[in-house]
Amino acid sequence: MPEAYIVDAIRTPTGKKKGSLAGWHPADLGAIPIKAIVDRTGIDPNAVDDVVWGCVDAVGPQAGNIGRSAWLAAGYSEAIPGVTIDRQCGSSQQAIHFAAQGVMSGTQDLVIAGGVQNMNAIPISSAMYAGQALGFETPFSTSPAWKARYGDEEVNQIYAAEKIAATWGISRQDMEAFAVESNARAERAIDEGRFDSQIVPVGDFRMDETVRRGTTLEGLAGLKTVREGGLITAGVSSQISDGASAVLVASEQAVKAHGLKPRARIHHLTVRGDSPIFMLTAPIPATRHALEKTGLKLSDIDLVEINEAFASVVLAWAKELDADLSKVNVNGGAIALGHPLGATGAKLMTTLLYELERTGGRYGLQTMCEGGGLANVTIIERL
């Protein structure tokens, strides 16, 4: 089977709720990493076979195939197609999978994969059911077949995060200690310049503005829980945020033809499902499946990026996999760095690639929970 290579990866800084990117049109925001990746690699944009783009709840300014719109907003040829996909939080990670699969199939040679999300641009985007702003009920509440299978049990991320904490015996103190560490790691990464080369500025905005510097256990302990009697607070949850990211995936033929230098090889691609009620647990079976298929052990993986949708998600995954948290989200995660839904998959891949290069690691694994009880796993090998 032909190999698929990552040639470059880049992202915008992440804007916070009502922050520096709130006023940006998603097409214009998505165009920024697209243009940067074309400029940095020197590829002929007319040689791109497709633009595969992630975006969650593509309504309002994110509607109308935002992947295609972002390409055109970047000023490139109308002859190049684009497609937008929605696998919830894993949308741009799935975009990378589809790009790699196109290359591995031999039908494509150069694909730009990535995503964009302006969570400030549409109401209720943090719940990923923006249709409620248009007067619709949640997508599960009116299906007789769904109710026959799952009853009236709530389908909600906060509810799921609470269920995970209770099932895996994860305390509020456990989650708050994790959140303090996430912010501390992100602070260190920013202060040491670890993100500088992976970020393309948006005007004068050059660095993630989401990090809550000086986060303490005492401060987190004073926050109100989202649900009365619950454990989850804003301090142990990912942040509403805006951003865009892009990855260039190439075949061996394209690498030679365009004089490119691949930085990593796509080693494995997995997507698996789990309970839609627990919703956020699928990284556990997906990681197990990926390791079984590749013959790797988790100890063979040098670095892991797992999306910090909620602290309980990562801590449950770590318990089940007996993971070494010193190798997980070493530069902080979405609790500190934000979660611009459709952009996060390629954003995490960008961070993973640069950190493998910085540390000299060989294998990196990326996974993230996704609405509906899904999870992608991507394993890359640094070259």
TrEMBL record:
Keyword Transferase attached: yes
Catalytic site: C89 (acyl-thioester intermediate), H339 (proton acceptor), C369 (proton acceptor)
Pfam families named among the record's database cross-references: Thiolase_C (PF02803), Thiolase_N (PF00108)
Alphabetized Gene3D superfamilies for the sequence: 3.40.47.10
All copies of domain Thiolase N-terminal, residue ranges: 5-253
Signal peptide, first to last residue: none
Name of the top EC class for this enzyme: transferase
Transmembrane segments annotated in the record for this chain: none
GO molecular function, one term: 3-oxoadipyl-CoA thiolase activity
NCBIfam families, alphabetized: AcCoA-C-Actrans, PRK07801.1
Family, similarity comment: Belongs to the thiolase-like superfamily. Thiolase family.
Stated name of the protein: 3-oxoadipyl-CoA/3-oxo-5,6-dehydrosuberyl-CoA thiolase
Taxonomic placement: Bacteria, Pseudomonadati, Pseudomonadota, Alphaproteobacteria, Sphingomonadales
Gene name tied to this protein: paaJ
